[in-house]
């Protein structure tokens, strides 16, 4: 499998192969070869339907029967590859050559790649395209960069300050306590403090303990499983108690939550009913939805357990088996490679649930969670010792 974007005789070309045939899309217009014009390019695919957009002019390749998952498991290359012999002959029109020019602002599945020496895995013959210490987006929040003898300086918009315009003026004198986040409130010329796990109060200066986690919105807990390396990932299990009065919300996401290649098991609410989604590989997310309505959003405690036995999934709600399905009788993928990461309630400040889950769940969880047990462990996990924000004592 491959997906390749290349420049061919002045046109942009997208080629991808999901295992059965190569799809080719090419722009109608050529790119300017004067070296002074930046072009905006969007390209990708949903299933086997591709799209290519150059400077707002879009081309779409309609889906046809066939494979719909891109299974590469290789490094991601920009501008060239370590050896041109690695390039699949169907991925380019002519002999493969490296790109000459400038590339910036690469966003893959809503995450921007940092094209820096420290963030890239490797590379060669790459320089600063701007040619100055200002580079690209050195000054944040629409600040203007000026080259100085000693380096650079940023001229900041009215509401931003700091050497790179990284701090809001509303947070420059904030009183937020230990590990808290200051969130500017420009309309009221003020700020609010978002408390780290274990802290509460207006300024997050009161230490708290809890066994019941209360999620108030824009909340999350990220738990790292210390026993992940010893788990038998073909036989996963998670159980917990929750209560809420909301009809939508992500309760738990077992998985890295970084890109569509990551396996996951998710439990949440959709339209007032329990929804479980599992992905064991090949980006095929299988949703299992409980048919009874208004059983989960009545502010009473509910006990949910999800058991994965290879590709067989059982879901229990309040001790009753409500869902039982074999999501792949062919047993192509049987392990839940979730990376030892569990998110509760959401994914982090500023990360939208509907974007990270690609629409599987619409909102962060508002309610309470307690008594979380992974696999067949004898002890409940200690949510308070994890990482997170905006979570309080639900007792």
From TrEMBL:
This protein's record includes keyword Transit peptide: no
Cystine pairs: 102-129, 156-165, 176-193, 195-204
Coiled coil region boundaries: none
Domain Laminin G per the UniProt entry, residue ranges: 1-129, 210-395
Biological process, per Gene Ontology: developmental growth
Pfam family, one: Laminin_G_2
UniProt KW keywords: Calcium, Disulfide bond, EGF-like domain, Glycoprotein, Repeat, Signal
Ranges where the EGF-like domain occurs: 130-166, 167-205
Protein name as it appears in the record: EYS protein
Organism (species): Mesembrinibis cayennensis
Lineage: Eukaryota, Metazoa, Chordata, Craniata, Vertebrata
């Amino acid at each position: 499998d491959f997906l390749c974007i290349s420049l061919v005789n002045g046109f942009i070309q997208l080629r991808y192969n999901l295992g059965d045939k190569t799809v080719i899309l090419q722009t109608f217009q050529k790119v300017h070869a004067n070296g002074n014009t930046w072009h905006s390019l969007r390209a990708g695919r949903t299933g086997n339907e591709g799209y290519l957009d150059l400077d707002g002019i879009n081309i779409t390749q309609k889906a046809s029967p066939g494979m719909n998952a891109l299974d590469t498991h290789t490094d991601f290359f920009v501008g060239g590859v370590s050896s041109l012999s690695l390039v699949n002959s169907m991925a380019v029109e002519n002999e493969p050559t490296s790109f000459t020019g400038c590339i910036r602002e690469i966003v893959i599945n809503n995450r921007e790649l940092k094209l820096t020496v420290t963030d890239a895995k490797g590379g060669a013959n790459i320089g600063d395209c701007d040619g100055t210490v200002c580079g690209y987006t050195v000054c944040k929040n629409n600040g203007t960069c000026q080259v100085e003898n000693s380096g650079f300086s940023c001229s900041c918009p009215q509401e931003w300050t700091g050497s790179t315009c990284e701090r809001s003026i509303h947070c420059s004198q904030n009183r937020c306590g230990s590990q808290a986040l200051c969130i500017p409130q420009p309309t009221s010329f003020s700020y609010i403090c978002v408390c780290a796990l274990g802290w509460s109060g207006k300024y997050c200066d009161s230490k708290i303990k809890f066994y019941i986690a209360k999620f108030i919105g824009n909340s999350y807990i990220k738990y790292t499983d210390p026993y992940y390396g010893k788990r038998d990932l073909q036989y996963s299990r998670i159980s917990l108690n929750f209560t809420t009065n909301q009809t939508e919300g992500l309760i738990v996401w077992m998985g890295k939550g970084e890109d569509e290649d990551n396996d996951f098991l998710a439990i949440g609410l959709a339209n007032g009913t329990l929804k479980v989604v599992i992905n064991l590989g090949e980006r095929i997310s299988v949703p299992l939805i409980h048919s009874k309505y208004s059983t989960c959003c009545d502010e009473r405690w509910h006990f949910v357990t999800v058991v994965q036995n290879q590709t067989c999934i059982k879901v229990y709600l309040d001790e009753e088996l409500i869902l039982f399905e074999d999501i792949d009788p062919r047993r192509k993928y049987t392990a839940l490679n979730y990376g030892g990461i569990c998110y509760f309630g959401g994914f982090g400040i500023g990360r939208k649930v509907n974007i990270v889950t690609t629409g599987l769940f619409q909102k962060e969880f508002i309610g309470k969670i307690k008594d979380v047990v992974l696999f067949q462990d004898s002890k409940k996990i200690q949510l308070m010792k994890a990482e997170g924000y905006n979570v309080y004592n639900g007792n």
